């Protein structure tokens, strides 16, 4: 694991966008795993700008979302809506090359298995871009709910709150997430962390023994994991 400490969140976004562009340039047909959340929004904006300027072409690449919530797809809180707004169209992914678990599946467990199969059939992940929760979750491998392969989880109250809005009518809210091994099998991982609220999780990622209570600690052993942290997220190191 390598930790790069950058001054600001904007610097993290710039560095992440640069590494993304370099990866696509060196392997145009690469398979990406992509995150949602506040952290990657600026990276996506920079990549969309690069595409408009002719400096990014993902027409041969494929992307798989890290996770999805099991909610009606039309709701603004779904990751389908987030990716539609921030990533897929703006970066230039054709719909058939932009994959996400079906959050409306009648049988979520079967959908998780199908999605894992789709990732394996694509040859696995070349570059996975990750966020990190304040509780150390990566994708939706939540504390106590990490598992090796793509699986169904139930959102805790704090994780639900990060979605915003009032979702009480849908409780308990579940999600489908790539598993720890799904992601550890990636050739390269890039983890973005910005702000003070991520400082404890970043410290535990670096220092704590691997434990399912802080799922981030399960990722430290990856040979090609780079953490891009701003000074605030690195403040406990
Ligand atoms: P955030 O989410 O980027 O909105 O902080 C990170 C995550 O939960 O993985």
Shape: globular
The secondary structure category is alpha/beta
Averaged pLDDT: 98
Strands of the largest sheet, in order across it? 1-10-9-6-2-3-5
Could you give a short account of the major beta sheet? Answer: 7 strands, parallel
- Strand share of the residues? 15-25%
The unique ligands bound to this protein are: 2-phosphoglycolic acid
Q: Percent helix among the residues? A: 25-40%
- State the order of secondary-structure elements, H for helix, E for strand: EHEHEEHHEHEEHEHEHE
Task: Set out the fold topology.
Blueprint lengths: L1 E5 L2 H18 L4 E4 L6 H12 L9 E4 L1 E3 L9 H8 L1 H4 L6 E2 L8 H14 L5 E4 L20 E4 L2 H5 L12 E4 L2 H5 L3 E6 L5 H9 L17 E6 L7
Bound molecules: 2-phosphoglycolic acid.
The site of 2-phosphoglycolic acid has 7 residues, from loops.
How is this structure best described in words?
The chain is α/β, with parallel strands linked by helices. It is built from eight helices and ten strands. The strands form two sheets. A seven-stranded parallel beta sheet has the order 1-10-9-6-2-3-5, with helices on one face. Helix 2 (41-52) links the parallel strand 2 (31-34) and strand 3 (62-65). Helix 1 (9-26) packs across helix 2 (41-52). The longest helix has 18 residues, at 9-26. The relative contact order is 0.19. The mean pLDDT is 98.
């Amino acid at each position: 694991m390598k930790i790069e400490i950058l001054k600001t969140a904007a610097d993290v976004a710039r560095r992440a966008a640069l590494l993304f562009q370099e990866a696509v340039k060196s392997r145009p047909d690469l398979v990406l795993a992509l995150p949602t959340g506040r952290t990657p929004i600026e990276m996506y904006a920079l990549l969309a700008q690069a595409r408009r300027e002719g400096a990014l072409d993902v027409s041969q690449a494929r992307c798989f979302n890290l996770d999805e919530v099991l909610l009606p797809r039309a709701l603004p809180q779904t990751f389908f809506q987030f990716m539609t707004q921030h990533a897929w169209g703006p970066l230039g992914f054709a719909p058939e090359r932009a994959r996400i678990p079906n959050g409306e599946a009648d049988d979520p467990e079967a959908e998780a298995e199908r999605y894992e199969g789709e990732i394996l059939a694509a040859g696995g992940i070349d570059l996975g871009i990750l966020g990190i929760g304040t509780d150390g979750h990566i994708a939706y491998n939540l504390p106590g709910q990490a598992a090796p392969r793509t699986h169904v989880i139930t959102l805790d109250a704090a994780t639900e709150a990060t979605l915003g809005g009032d979702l009480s009518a849908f409780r308990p809210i579940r999600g489908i997430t790539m598993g720890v091994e799904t992601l550890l099998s990636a050739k390269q991982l890039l983890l973005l962390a910005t702000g003070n609220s991520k400082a404890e999780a970043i410290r535990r990622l670096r220092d704590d023994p691997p434990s399912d209570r802080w799922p981030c600690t399960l990722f430290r052993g990856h040979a090609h994991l780079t953490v891009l942290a701003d000074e605030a997220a690195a403040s406990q190191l």
